[in-house]
Amino acid sequence: MSARFKAWLAISRSSNLPTVWSNLVLGWITGFGFYYLNQPAAVVPSASSYPWSLSLVLLLLGVSCSYVGGMILNDVWDRDWDARYRPERPIPAQLIHPQVAGIVASILLILGFFLAVFASPSGTRRETIMVAALLTIGIILYNRWHKGFWVAPVVMSLCRVALPILGFFGAMPSSVGVPLFFGIYLIVLGAFTLLITWVARHESTDSSPSFWVEALFFLAPIPLMFIFPLGRNAWFILAVYSWWLLYSNWKYPLPQGVGARVANRLASLPLIDGLFLAPFFSHYHALAESRPQFYASFAELEWGFFIPSICFLLVLIWRRWIPST
Asked: How far is Cα 156 from Cα 194, in angstroms, rounded to an integer?
């Protein structure tokens, strides 16, 4: 593997892409389930009447482009700071020219926006355009002013929340609003991302996040436990999540371990998704049996457990070769 190719992998932080996919797929499955499992069977389309699988693939490609474009843009605008404090980064190390990186980032952000819009059904295209535009604008604003700007963590959390919302509207032929249980998940996801971003602000300093900030990572999933009854899969995911946080805190003491803790918190995002998806499928399993067969298969094959688990494992594997932060 050439040094230049490794530099592009490093600047993309693409080892975190499975967390993006997990968020989007959760939103897509929730939108599809909420809409069709509450409709008369006669209005449920066949798999051939709308290319659902193609729509999901395009959405995944779109948010992947947006994420990688945002990461590259981050290094472009941080190049002067990196030259002083992190000269090994690809741009200050002169492995990637900043102008080339800026062009690539711009193309990816534009491509991400149009793929998301193109993938959406016509009935929810207006909502998709709004969310995709806010995601793109949020990425740009965060990367441009994230250092020293107190509201930057809020902007980052809103960008993360936009991912499942894109998936949610991408699975609906017409908008029927956002259910309360999905709204609770979005709040938890946003709060969790806010905590990660807040801790990351200490990464290049000698300071440490407060004990209470660290404690909130353990408390963040609690609202998800009251949406649907937890089954064995959700309890297992919760146990893995708690163990992962404890292991990370033990292995990486503060303040030296801030960067590693941030990377581990990012990796655990799919586990947060699993705490929602696993009981969601259990709750709707009976309804799913009388609805579209491929959705019933999601429940029968326990995709609510396996999708987040696989995404979590992919992050752990990929970051061996591609830095997470």
From this structure: 7
